[in-house]
Each structure stands twice: as C-alpha cells, then as structure tokens.
Amino acid sequence: MGFLDLFIVALMPMLKILLITAVGLFLATERINLLGANARPYLNNLVFYVFNPSNLFSKLADTISLESLVTLWFMPVNVLLTFIIGSALAWILIKITKAPQHLQSLIIGSCAAGNLGNLLLIILPAVCNEDNSPFGDSSACSTDGEAYAALSMALGVVFLWTYVYAIMRLSANKATKEIDTNDSTIRDKTSEETPYSEICTEALLPSRGCHTSEEYTDQVEVPFSGCEGKAKVSFLEKAKLHLKKLFGYIDLKKLFAPSTISAIIAFTVGIVSPIRKVVIGDDAPLRAICNSVSLIGEAAIPCMTLLIGANLLRGLKRSEVGTSIVLGIIAIRYIISPLLGIFIVKAANHFGMVGSDSLYQFTLMLQYALPPAMTVGTISQLLKTGESECSVIMLWTYVVASFSLTIWSTFFMWLVT
After folding, report:
1. Domain CATH number, residue 26
2. Cα dihedral sign for 157, 161, 167, 168?
3. The pLDDT value given to residue 414
C-alpha cells in the first residue's frame, strides 16, 4: 500500500476527533454557553463516574480473556515504559528550562501520561473500518483494536493514579515547602526574637547540620551521629528511603477511582470463565446487564471529546506558561518519545516479545505518540498547582496532536505493514 493511501487512512480518525472537539469548543463559547464553566463540572462528573467506567467495562469484559492477556503481556511493560521515559525526559526539560517549582509537577504529568484511552478507542476502530486499511478484515480488526484500546485505557488509569499522581504530588509538596520556607525566611528576618542557637531543634531555615522534621521523618531508620555529623547512608538505603517516600504519596482513595474499580470487575468477568458465560455473549442469562452498561458507555467518547474542546477554550484566554516549556513538552511527546517507541517496539519484535500482529505493533507504537492525558488537569486541580497553565499546555499539545498523530500513524502503519 502506498504512503499516500496510508496517510488518508490515518487522516480520517483525526478529522473525526477535530470535528467533535471543534463542536465542544463552540458549545463552550460565551454566546452559546452550553458547556460553560457551570455546565462542564456536571458533564465531567458524568463522564468520570458513569460513562467512562461503563465504557471500560463493556469493552474490556467483552474482549479480554485469560488467553488474550497471556498474548498481550508486553503491553503493560510498554505502557510503563511510556511513563518512565516521559518522566525522565520531563526532568531533563525542567533542568534545561529552569521551570519554576509550581510548574514542575505539571510538566512531569504532561510528559509522562498520554491519552491512552479515549483517543485509541476512536483511532483504532476508525482505521480498521477504512476501505484501504492495511490491517485486513475490518470486523476482526475492530474487535482486536477495541481489545487493545480497552486494555491500554485500563493500564493508563492504574499508572496515572499510582505512578504519575505520586510523582506530581511529591513535586507539588516540594513547591509548597519552598513557599513555606520563603515565608519563614521573611518572618525570620523581620522577627526581633533571638533564635535558640544552642539547642539542636528544627529551625525556620534548614541548617547544614540539622535536619528538618520532614527530612528526619524520611531518614528515621538510618542511624546518624547527631546535628554536627552527617549520616553515612549507603546507596541501597537511599533507594529504599526514596521508594518508601514515593509510595507514601500514593493515595489509595484516588487509585480506586470508578474506572479502576470498573477495570478490576471487567478483568474478573473476562478471565473467570463461569462468570463470563453468565454475563457475556448472546446466550448469556445476564446479557441484559452487559448490554445496558455498553449502551451507557457509548456516550463516553463523544462526551469526553466535547469536554476536551470545551476545556481547550480556557487555554486561549491564558498565556502564563513560558513558550520554551510548551515547545519542550511538544518536542518530548511528538518527536523524542515516538522515536524511542519505534526503537523499543522493533527491538521487542526482534526478540519475539510482541508477535507478528501488525495492529498490535501499531498500537504499541501509537502509545508513545499520544497527547497528554486530560486527567493530568484533574490531578493539577486536586493538588492546586499549575491549574491555569494546564489549559495552555493542553491547548497547544492537542492542536499539534491533530497533525503529529496523522503523520506518526501513517509512518507507523508503513513500518508494521
């Protein structure tokens, strides 16, 4: 198949996403105001608590079985690699741009977490249904594509609320600590009281010898010689302390979000054969339940895409974030990460880890080229850091994604077929 034919196949899903996003943007304008500031939270709650979990359950339970999970074992590894690579590149970007502390968590989240759910649920079936699709029979392709997209979305939810949320929370707490330290410095300079210099206590400003209370808490298991001496900590002990600190920032309440619970139930239904026979299938006694959930879940993709367009309108009204940061995130998500993704998937294919399914390889590569997850904005709001700048980053990354995803999708299809 020629490169131009592949480009047309890749362009169709992007046009669908752009059209629905444009409708959401239009509905959010002040003149129409159907998705204004008052309406968006209600629709967002419906998507978060009802539509997304229903969609995830219907797609995952119907397409995932124990045999397919064994076949798709590399996808969790691949998704984890997208998060790790994005985090590492975000750290480099922060060092290069010298980003302010309150934006660092947002940069990490935007680079690490891609939109692994709804976009794949749009792109993969749309590509399969094109007449010139390189992936064979449209019916089998759509079924496999939905399975890949559903598993990708389930993994994305888990990694978002564990890995990304923990790192963003850690970074946000550092920003808060920095602000508190600056406030303490000002109070210390203006205070006329004499500090207690003869006693080893927690000072307003951390000294070289004494630890702050938070640092002491983190190092409570490591013996040290007191205020004047430095603790001798091995590399392994430091690694354990950092891991313990990182796991301490995982919020189990946030981890078990509705979509996570839905994914757990869907995995149980799909993998456990007796339950699957009762719920899934045309002859299943409880098929009405699955059909009803599927019907509700069909509203998830259009509503979520409309919300993306409505939320992007806020980015047009704000420009607080630096241009270098936005360009850096775009370069990471749409240039560096996809190139690394090609290398990783091709290497995995060479060593027999992903099999010969071209659609599966295409999906794995596509996971490296997606725009930032909209959930990053939700996490920013929860942590109350970088909220206004998030709209700007999302606006420009999604505008560029409409072009970059088309180009990369074309190139990925050419590579795997």
Report:
1. 1.20.1530.20
2. positive
3. 92
- Residue 92: inside a domain: yes
Residue 200 lies in a domain: no
129 burial (CB, 10 Å; 0-12 / 13-18 / 19+) is middle
Residue 214 tokens read as: 């938070």
Tokens 């850096």 map to which residue? 328
DSSP character at residue 230: P
| In 28-137, alpha helices (H) | 40-46, 52-63, 66-71, 74-97, 101-112, 118-129
Within 13 Å, how many C-alpha atoms sit on residue 104's CB side?
22
**What range defines the domain where residue 329 resides?**
3-180+254-416
Question: Is 193 domain-assigned?
Answer: no
Tallying the residues shown for the chain, one arrives at: 417
**Rounded CA separation 329/97 (Å):** 11
Burial 357-381 (b: 16+ CB within 10 A, else e): bbbbbbbbbbbbbbbbbbbbbbbbe
What is the C-alpha to C-alpha distance for residues 371 and 365, in angstroms, rounded to an integer?
A: 13
CA distance 8 to 131: 10
User: Which residue has better confidence, 391 or 238?
Assistant: 391
* Residues 138, 144, 146, 152, CA torsion sign: negative
Which of 220, 113, 116 is closest to 167 using CA atoms?
A: 113
Tell me what the pLDDT averaged over the chain comes to: 80
Range in 121-135, 233-247, 344-358 with the lowest mean pLDDT:
233-247
The number of distinct structural domains making up the chain is: 1
Angle, vertex CA 390, rays to CA 388 and CA 396, nearest 5: 120
Structure-token pair, residue 300:
């998830």
- The amino acid sitting at 386 is G
13, part of any domain: yes
Please tell me the distance from the alpha carbon of residue 14 to that of residue 405, in angstroms, as a whole number: 8
